[in-house]
Each structure stands twice: as structure tokens, then as C-alpha cells.
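hey so u asked for the seq, here:
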Amino acid sequence: MIPSVAAVLVVRGEAPLLERALEAVRGQHRAVDSLTVVACRVPDAALSRIERAEPDHIVTSAQELDYGAALRAGVAAHPEGASDELLWLLDAATIPTPDALRVLAAELETAPSVVAAAPKLVRDDEPDRIASMGESMTRLGASVDLVGGELDQGQHDRLSDVLGTSPHGMLVRRSAWDDLDGLDPALPAVDDGLDLGVRARLAGHRVVVVPAAAVRIAADRDDRRAGAAARRRHRERRSAQLHRRFAYAAWPALPVHWLSLLPLAVLRSAWHLLTKAPGSIPGEWVASARALVLLGPVVAARRRIRRNRGARWSAIAPLRLPPDELRRRRAQERDARRVRARGQREEVHFIAGGGGWTVLAATVASVALFLFLIGSSGVSGGGLQPLAAQVGELWGSAAYGWRDIDTGFVGAADPFAGVLAVLGTANWWSPSFALVLLWIGAVPLSALGGWFAAARLTDRAGIRAVTGLAWAVAPPLLVALADGRPAAVLAHVLLPWLVWSMIAAARSWPAAAVAALLFAAVVACAPSLAPALVLGWLVAAIVSRHPLRYLGIPVPAAVLAAPLVIDQVVRGTPLGLLADPGLPTASGPTGGTALVLAFPADAYAAWAEPLAALTGGTIAPTVLVASMLLPLGLLAAAAVFVRGARAGIGALGIALAGFATAAAAAQVSVATAGEDAVRVWTGAGLSLYWLGLLGAALVTLRAIGRHSAVPGAVALLGVVLAILPVGVAIATGSAAVQPAGPRTVPAFVEAAAAEDPRVATLRLVPQADGGLRAVLEHGAGTTLDEQSTLAATADALDDDQRELAELAGNLASRTGFDTTAGLEQFGIRFVLLGTASDDERRATATEARAATAMDQNAALVPVGDTEFGRLYRTADEGDTTAATAIPVGAGARGARGSSASSSRS
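ran it, C-alpha cells below
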């Protein structure tokens, strides 16, 4: 005969999940035979919802009964059925899955010795995370959750017999419930299910958990009083432990336990002080005082045990937690507390947590952006140049020595040259192709780094995905990709990994070592970030419990930068240390609005043309982009007012440091490129600013919990729309970055360079102001690793540079000056006159005048027009070996190089 099932549903207060709970009970595959609802101090609206559900019995109470008392009232109101009737214990915060009752009932029907079967409780906001599944206790009587807080991956599906379980969702035989007298009234909040299981075991019965039956349970999310809730839980657990200690102890031990209450309270209070948990001390004394004077509940509990006891206490010994397992769990709890104190999450679960899908989405977006680079051997435009063809040349460029910049000098290498050497070595068979891989992989790599950084702060897959994708489509990154700024791209990709390792450095020396290397790499790529990063390092070291692990983090960066620092300071240009490494690339001014919107150089103005077509210019691009980014800004600002506000304030501090860095960079020009003064690029600071905003928004989304999906998706959509014109410009080829051609110099020069790697070419570039920029190159053209901020930030020309400028001016003008000697002095075999842009009228006039002058110069022989401009060779290609050789003692570098000076003709 199939036993009948009587469900008892306890409803207290507002009960926001009441309708879901009622629907879940009525929607069971194995229907309940009767439903009794116990309504404790519920408002009229909730009572109306209960009545509309038409339960078999409704029990109302003007008092807010605890769970056990409410169950007693509900069971008492239900007329006793058959002897094998089953009671299903529920409350309005439990949502059973449709098959839960059938699975639980099957367990009781097939196992007569089992009197109670409990489901696997999972979190309602995270159904894949176990909230509770089975309870036990230590030899001293402390209760322990067998499983709690773990991701459900089926690892505990074989768990069966347990000492006790949570009574929420439990299916129990009514006969056993009546014999055991239900839950102990002295345990109104915690350990009630554990005590019921202990009494059932002493009565000769079994209690099991059924992992195949799942019940969702809502967690208490009152974050505003999280501290008070923790103190209350401690008081309740300690009270329950002391009550059970008196209820379970042998009679001779009772006086000893009673006399030890106050001394134990003193010792435990001292321990709470030592472990920095003073908030637990009042609860310790309240629990001890209650146990000291409230002896009546203990007497009733001991009478209840004695009335049904049919087995020895040794029957529960195998189900107690062994000491070695207890030690292991406590060690894990200590680690978890340290992790939570630093806002970290140990469980990454890259695949299960959505990391794979996040990177896949970013990869698809990257392929759509850079489809034109697929199959290309290089990438050019903006600040991009090829890398040296040989790995040895790359590492030579990273060392102190001779630099083929301008007319050549001995000096320190930029630390960024070392980063390029590592990058090129990773693709050693074709170092320049590493830049193509960087450009295609920058977006997915950024998504990966953002996802892992978010994993340190939250275990929610959706929030991690939003953070990773928002970092991957950040305005500073896409603008850097469009402008061809490899150093800025690398800095953006590495920043979240630096944060990831800095957080872990508090607990691990290897993580501190990784943080040191990443710190050095980020500073090498974006020197303007050094002050903000040093400030962040100091704060992290001060607040950390292990500051020694942080002390060495800046050391590699300082060692790598030391030679350059010395050269710049000795030369009298210390501000040159802030110059962006690589090929100097000018950018437009960045206004205050653009800084707030995290757009370098007012790049959001790309919305102007689409808006003009759609709205006739009635909406300004600033207003549109600001409205798109408003959801992200609101989420970031709200981080100050939600749970975890300390982490939110820290993230906003990072954002402030990044914004200040970008604002300062917008005012500083320390490098030159021809006629242009090159400002320090604001994008590096804005990347840090964006990182802080995303961190603060993450804190807010984490506090929102399961309702974070909509605001997170809206914020991400706004970011994607705001940067959309920049992405369209990249994908359609309108941006500066383009596939690299087969060569960077005319084929005639490349053929000569194959025979003589030091062959010199003077490149003349017409400027918009009517001047000429003279660039001296060796071999097959300048490479990115050869660039030097020492040359870009020089505040005056040396004698050789003046002579080169004078030579360029005389070549481009009909002065009657004999240029043969100057060409031989610099070993120049070719002169390349660049093509001016059609919209630069003065540059076009300069090009025409220079072409006329060089056509009539007897020292030059026209070779013809090329894709790079008009090419000339020297009339007498004599032996120029001495002129082109690196000076003796200049250092062990035999690579190609470039030099630049300017002249007015």
C-alpha cells in the first residue's frame, strides 16, 4: 500500500516566496494527499494568497512561532491518518523541485528502518550550489555541516546515512514523529534537525539524505545587518551546543559541565579577542547564562531521549566527525576566512563558470574586427612597425649600447624593448607576426584577464562574464587597437592579471613573484602608470597582514628602468621618463568630457556622423555616449552603499587614480614626432580608470545577487554601443591600423639591404607646416624594437643632427650647395621623398619643390616612383663602409636603425 503524504507548510511574515512555494507543492509529480498551512503573523495580503491556494487546513497564529513550534501546531491540526502516513516538513522559503517528493517517498517505502529522508538543499539564487546536505557533530558536541557551500558536481551523490539533517524539506514517518515528540522546543533556530536525528538513531532508526531529491532554499540576504546576523548565529549555535551537551551527557558529568560554564566563557572570550572576533563575546556570555539557569528544557530533553532510547550512545559514534577530518575542515575554514577577508574566491571553475563562453564570444568579436588581418604576415599603421627579423637582434635592442636613432648614440634601452623581445621570442620563427597575433588576440585575452580578475571577487558566472566582456571592449583598448599603439594594448591586456596576482600575493610568495614581473611589464608598456601603481602597491602592503610579500614587487621594474632613469636625469630631461615607448605617435587633445567617458582623444566623436544622419544633429555625441555609459556609472557609484562597500571604495580609489593619471597625461608633452609635440597618451590612465569602474560595478552586481542579470546586461550593452563606431572603423579599414605590406622600403632598397644590412636611406617627409622631416634609416627599414624614448624626448639637436638637417634642406632646395660630401659623411646611398596628403596644400608645395630640386641635383640619380614615394640613389655609390659602421666601443649592436631630424626648406 502506498502511504499517504501530508505536507505541512509554515509561513511567517511577508513570505515573498509564498506563491512559488505553494505552486511547487501543488506541482509535484507525486501529489500530496493533504496540505496544511501554518500562518504565523502573516499580513492580510499573504493570508489571502494562502486562501486562494485552497489548502486542506489553515492554522493561524498571532505569534511568530519558531519552525518547530509551527510544525507542532500544523501536525496537531491535521487529523491522524494511517499508521504509515508521511509528513513533509516545509516552509515558505523552500521550493521543492517537481520530482522531490516522489524520490523521498520512494526511499521511505523501500527502507523500513529509515524514518526520515531529507533532500539536498540548494541555493535558490544558485541552484548549482549546495546549501546543506547532512549534519554531524564532533566528539565535543559541536554541530558540523557535512556539505555546504560547494558547487554541485555530483561529488556527494553517494552520501546516504547521516547523523542528522536540516528539517526543511524533510519527509518523516508520522509514527516516528509522534514517538520522538517532534523537534526539541529548546532548539528553535539551529541544530533542531541534528537533535531529531540523534534521537532517531538512539531509538534504533535511520536518517538518510537523498541527493536525487533537491529543494531550493532562499538565503537570508539582509546585507545591511550582516554583522548582527553573524553575531546572532553564533549565539544561537553556542546555545544549541550547550543545550545538547547537557541533554546528551551522562548524569555524573552534568555537575562538571555546569561548573565549567563560566570558566569556559572566559577562555572562549579571550580566544575571540585573539582571533579578532570581539562581536562573538556577548553571544558567548548570553548562551552560557541561559544554560546556567534554564535547566527545565534540559530535563524535558533528557526525558524525551530516555522515553524512546533503544540503543547505546555508541550507535552514533560511527556517524560523528573523526578528529582528523575535523582538523582538515578547520584548516580549510581558516583559508576560506582569509580568502573572504581579501575579497577572493578560490573556486574559479573556468569552464563551468562560463569563462570558456566569455572568451569564445570575445574571440568571435575579435575575428569580426580584424578579419582583414587573417593571412597577413604583419600589421602596420599608427605606432606600429615590424620587429627585427632575428631573435638575437630583439634582445640586442633590449640591452644598453649603440642605438641607431637619429644619427646614432650610446644609451639605455627602453624597458619596453625587453617586453617586445619576449613577445617576438614567443614567435621566434617570425617575430613580426607576433604583432598580428597580439592584435587578433587582444580582445579575447582581455576578456580572459577580466574574467579571472572578476573571479577573485565573485563566484557568479554572469557577473564574471559581464566584467570580462566589458574589459574586452573597453574604449581605451579599442582606440589603442585602431591607432596602432602596441604598448598601450599590452598594458591593457596585462592590467587585470596584475590585479589578480596582487590579490593572491598576500597569501603566496610565487604569486608575489608573478605580480613583480607583471608590475614591471605594465610599467614598461605604460610609464605614466608608474605613480598610480606605486601608490596601489603601498596601500596593498600597508593593509596586508603579510607586507613582506609585497616589498619586492616594484624591484624588477626599478632594475629594468634604472639605466634609462640615469640617462634621462643626467641629460636633464627627467620628465622624458613618462614618454610612451615605441614609435612616437601624436594624438589629438583629450577634453574633460572624454576623460570622464574613458575615451582617449575624444574618440567618441565618431558618433557625430551617424547621429547627424539619424537625428539631423539634434543630439550631441557627448550626450548619447554619456547616456549609454550611464548604467555602468550608476552601478559603480552604488558600490559605496551596498554590501562589500569596502571593496567598492577600493575599486573607486583605483578609478580615481587612473582618472588623475589620464588628466595629468593630457597636459604633458615630452616627445616629438617631426613638427608635432606628442602628448603622453591618456589611454593608459583611462585603462586603469576603466578597471576601477568595472571593479566597483562588480561589487554592486555581487550585492544585488540573483537580480544582477538585467542591470549587468544593460551596462554591457551600453558599453558595446558606445564603442561601436570605433569597432566599425576598425572592421571597415577606416582606422589607422592596416595589414602590413610585403616590405617597408622600396624593393630597390630592400635588394641593396640584402647585400649590405647597413645601407643608409634618407627619407624626406613633407610636413603640413611646409617643412620637411628627415629620417635616416639603415637596412630594410626601422623596426619597433629600435625605437628609443631617449631620442624622442631630446630637447635639442646635436651637431650631427644639425648637419643632417642642413643636408636635407639643401637637397630639397636649389641652393647650389654641393651635397655630395654630406651624403658620403652619413653613408647615404638612397633618398626617398615621401608623398604629401592631398588635403595638405603646403606639404604638397614642399614636395613639388623638393622633387624639382633633387631632379636637378647632380649628386642624385632618379630611380622612379614607388609606393613609398619618389626614390633617388646617389650618383657615386662608392665605398661607404666607414661612414655606415657603428663607432668603435659603442656597444655590441649590429642591428638596423633609424634617425630623425627636421629642417625647413
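The radius of gyration is 37 Å. The chain has a mean pLDDT of 85.
lmk if thats what u needed
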